[in-house]
Design brief:
6% strand, mainly alpha, flat, 40% helix
Length: 98
């Protein structure tokens, strides 16, 4: 069973903040995730020839068509941004480093 300290360490590694009030909830969810991973890892997957038996392995690729002209969509996309700094498009910062 995971502990709240382990959840705090995992949150720190993921660079997310978890309120003390949410630690118990995340600890239970963490245990459920680990139980699911254990179930999935117990599934036996056939190896080698048994896997390919009766199946043809090949890549499925679409044919190349006529590409659009370079820069054809650039201005239309750039108009969607609220700010520009020269050729760079500026966006609002949403991630903060502790």
């Amino acid at each position: 069973m995971a502990t709240t300290e382990e959840v705090k360490k995992l949150a720190a590694l993921a660079r997310i903040r978890v309120a003390d009030a949410e630690l118990e909830k995340f600890t239970k969810e963490f245990d459920a995730i680990l139980a699911y991973v254990e179930t999935v890892s117990a599934v036996e997957i056939p190896q080698g020839e048994a896997l390919r038996e009766g199946r043809e392995l090949r890549n499925i690729m679409r044919p190349d068509g006529e590409p659009h002209a370079p820069g054809a969509h650039t201005e239309k996309l750039a108009e969607q941004f609220s700010a520009r700094e020269g050729d760079a498009l500026s966006v609002k910062q949403i991630i903060q480093h502790g």
